[in-house]
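step=encode ok
step=design start
structure_in=
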């Protein structure tokens, strides 16, 4: 299978697989997915829960976020 034969499939799969650049993240994601998708909790849309579970070790850089926002002045 090449990009030229299936361009849409190639692009979609690349976007879906990109977050799993390392084996560790991939294993963590599938472990989390199996914990989320249990017999008693079989939701169809697990993406938000999976995203939060996998990204729990990422901390926001508050100083960079606040530096790019202008404070609102008083009225």
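sequence_out=
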């Amino acid at each position: 299978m090449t990009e030229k034969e299936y361009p849409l499939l190639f692009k979609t799969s690349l976007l879906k697989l990109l977050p799993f650049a390392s084996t560790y993240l991939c294993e963590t994601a599938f472990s989390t997915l199996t914990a989320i998708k249990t017999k008693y909790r079989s939701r169809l849309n697990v993406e938000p829960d999976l995203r939060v579970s996998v990204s729990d070790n990422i901390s926001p850089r508050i100083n960079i976020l606040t530096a790019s926002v202008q404070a609102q002045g008083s009225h």
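step=design ok
step=annotate ok -> Residues 23-36 form the longest helix (14 residues).
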